[in-house]
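Hi R.,

Here's the chain you asked about this morning:
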Amino acid sequence: MKKMISASILNADFSCLESQIQAAEKAGVDWIHLDIMDGHFVPNISFGPQIAAMVRKMTSLPIDTHLMISNPDQFIAAFSDAGADYISVHVENNPHIHRTIQNILKNGKHAGIVLNPGTPVQAIYPVLHMVSYVLIMSVNPGFGGQSFLPESLDKISELSAKIKAEKRDVLIEVDGGINAETLPLAAKAGAEIFVVGSYIFTNPQGIPHAMQTLKA
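And the predicted structure, written out as tokens:
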């Protein structure tokens, strides 16, 4: 089973962001994760394509961009141009999700679909054949540092079984409250990509120690 770490910079120290990203990369992070929030779809504001372009200059790792915004179609091209490699969008509040995923693919990027904790797995089945990965939120999106919701494990297991039954090449990503204790639980359920933010960037024992415990 794969165990890939996508480091969310939401909790990084932006006064020394490049050094933090470089430290994470050196410690074995696989992807860099960008949480894009607009203050509408989720109750917080983060950053936009300009920061994504800046991050692109700081690392050669794949950039994993999670659009928690009300109008993702208006920004897919901008984040693609900024250097995103993977772009995921929410199924919630998007009656044209098929078209949105087509938009990501048209821009030459890997497409992902995202499920909030209150959304059943079945909601994304109609577009499962179009995406490279499914991101299951294990917290309610909008803020870093939240606690893992254990009911997310059932959703991961259900989705994993669906993917295996249909023999699809689709990865399962999980985001929210991931640390050295919760990552093995999500991995056992079938997740392969783990978005980790505060556990890496605010770890009192440092980024290398955090990554060592996550990859153990």
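The longest helix spans residues 152-165.

Let me know if you need anything else.
M.
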